[in-house]
Amino acid sequence: MEHTCKLYSTLHDKKWRESNTRKQKSLKKPKFKEKVIMCLMCLLGDVSVASRRRTTIRSRIKCCLLNHSRRKQQHSRCFHYTPHQIPFKSITMVSFSFLRLILLLCLVSSSFSYSTASPSNSTTADQTLRPQDELQKLKLIRKELQKINKPASSDGDTIDCVSTHQQPAFDHPLLNGQRPIDPPEMPKGYNKDDESDEDYQLWSLSGESCPEGTIPIRRTTEQDMLRASSVRRFGRKIRRVRRDSTSNGHEHAVGYVTGRQYYGAKASINVWSPRVTSQYEFSLSQIWVIAGSFTHDLNTIEAGWQISPELYGDTYPRFFTYWTSDAYRTTGCYNLLCSGFVQTNRRIAIGAAISPRSSYKGGQFDISLLIWKDPKHGHWWLQFGSGTLVGYWPAFLFTHLRQHGSMVQFGGEIVNTRPGGSHTSTQMGSGHFSGEGFGKASYFRNLQMVDWDNTLIPVSNLKILADHPNCYDIRGGTNRVWGNYFYYGGPGKNPRCP
């Protein structure tokens, strides 16, 4: 680079002196265009005179942007012009503009070369990444995004305020053209004073909410879908054969009731930020309302908080919903990622991060969730916190749950991909075993169910189960303040859980 600029400087000085001697009075100053061209030649290099020596971008910038006071000293890296010949601001602006263009072209060229280059000498076809397949995948992703993301007025870079009747649920043939129904009758025995009025979502901590007639929807991006193991399975859980099966890596620590007809459930769930060690694993704490068998016709309604790097791209605990009517095979999805759940609230964003979270030996925070069946229309409603109706699952989505549930579960679930052939270190709950108690282990408290008369009553005959108690365990109890409760969770891999 120094050689190149020096040559230009020497040649130009020589030419200037010769010309000045012959035609002192008629000498013209170099035009602005010429100055820019010479600057570009310095930046890009001229094959006729340029040195083959490698140089840095810093040297090239210095070549064209060096201060004129230093040019008087005939710096070897710059054209030698007198100060009155080149306006420094003009050259600086032009140089930066061209430099940006050059750098952009270089980056694009490098990316293209990198993506099409092959480590071995092979044919041109072998050196590509099958662009037709990639384009087809991108088209499929964008087609799915059109179903999920509706035209909206943006609220920040992740939450959109979408017209209520344009939300994904109304793409369903049985809901097309309809609007959300009126709020249902609350279960008897529900006491709003028992709940906190705090706002637990990060996006709305500043007091933001969507306008009347709209709902907040977390925006789904191409990056979200590209993280998924399958585009067609995006936003869905992996199919499970049985609730207590770990053959596909799902492990649980739960309390449950069965043997009656259940029309809803309620609990306060302690919120933590457990460690999730793999993109394709998750950790969640939730309520399940279940009907049918654990084979082909399982119906579930689910709500709680989860950490899922694959679904959300981060490790924040997030409020979520889920449903299926065929054992997670082809129906159902998380949140609003398919036609199903109908949202009615303009302050709660399903899939948004929850804050604050609990800390070990520190402050403890929980969220209260209530799921119940509307006696009038038969839809299953969801309430978050203090009397905040989020929306409902229409009854027609289900087969068995059109009538009632046959089981209710509360607790934690993780996915264990067995990295390196050993148990995962993904945590459940707080990441500590139940025996550590309050402030250290995660909990569910005030467990209740809704009976046939739309009445909230304490659960009875609560059973507890941990698939792998050496990895994640559970311990129940009851008292006058918390009613039925349990502590649960664990660290995953440890000496007793190899």
Topology:
Elements: H1 2-22, H2 32-44, H3 57-65, H4 68-71, H5 88-116, H6 131-148, E1 152-155, E2 159-163, E3 214-218, H7 222-227, E4 250-262, E5 264-270, E6 283-291, E7 299-307, H8 309-312, E8 318-324, E9 342-343, E10 366-373, E11 380-384, E12 388-393, E13 405-415, E14 442-450, E15 456-458, E16 463-466, E17 473-479, E18 483-489
Antiparallel strand pairs: 1-2, 2-3, 4-13, 4-16, 5-10, 5-14, 6-7, 6-13, 7-8, 9-12, 10-11, 11-12, 14-15, 14-18, 17-18
Helix pairs in contact: 2-3, 2-5
Summarize the structure.
The protein has 498 residues and is an alpha+beta fold. The protein contains eight helices and 18 strands. The longest helix has 29 residues.
Walk me through what this model shows:
The chain is of the alpha+beta class and 498 residues long. The chain contains 8 helices and 18 strands. It has helices at residues 2-22, 32-44, 57-65, 68-71, 88-116, 131-148, 222-227, 309-312, and strands at residues 152-155, 159-163, 214-218, 250-262, 264-270, 283-291, 299-307, 318-324, 342-343, 366-373, 380-384, 388-393, 405-415, 442-450, 456-458, 463-466, 473-479, 483-489. The strands form 3 sheets. Strands 5, 9, 10, 11, 12, 14, 15, 17 and 18 form a 9-stranded antiparallel β-sheet that branches. Strands 8-7-6-13-4-16 form a 6-stranded antiparallel β-sheet, with no helix packed on it. The two termini are 59 Å apart. Pfam families: Neprosin (PF03080), Neprosin_AP (PF14365). It comes from Thlaspi arvense. Residues 168-198 are annotated as: Disordered. This is Neprosin PEP catalytic domain-containing protein. Residues 244-498 form the Neprosin PEP catalytic domain.
